[in-house]
Amino acid sequence: MVKHIEHIGVAVDNIEEALKTFEVLLSSQSYKKEIVESEGVKTAFIRVGESKVELLEATNKDSPIAKFLKTNKTGFHHIAFEVDNIDVELKRLK
Question: In tens digits, what is the pLDDT along the chain, a chain of 94 residues?
């Protein structure tokens, strides 16, 4: 069963500049930043009630985020849901 929206991912060109805007718009500060080398991405999270907004900046030109930004520009990238059991949900959706 889907519990709620865990986070919404937003691809950005420059995470530090985007944070300035999102922190003002959402009246909340980033609580977590990390670099995920395996995905070639830098992330920053901002809480919004029970959910979060995840900003994503490419750290190399071949990363999935870099390719997304090349085609789609800055904007909505993905939505993640919290579920009780991922295996059950994947089976249900198939």
Answer: 889 999 999 999 999 999 999 999 999 999 999 999 999 999 999 999 989 999 999 999 999 999 999 999 899 999 999 999 999 999 999 9
The residue type of 36 is V
Q: Are 10 and 53 in contact (CB under 8 A)?
A: yes
Contact 23, 34 (CB under 8 A): no
CB proximity list for 21: less than 8 A, separation 6 or greater: none
Chain center to CA of 15: 11
Q: Nearest 5°: CA angle at 39, between 37 and 20? A: 85
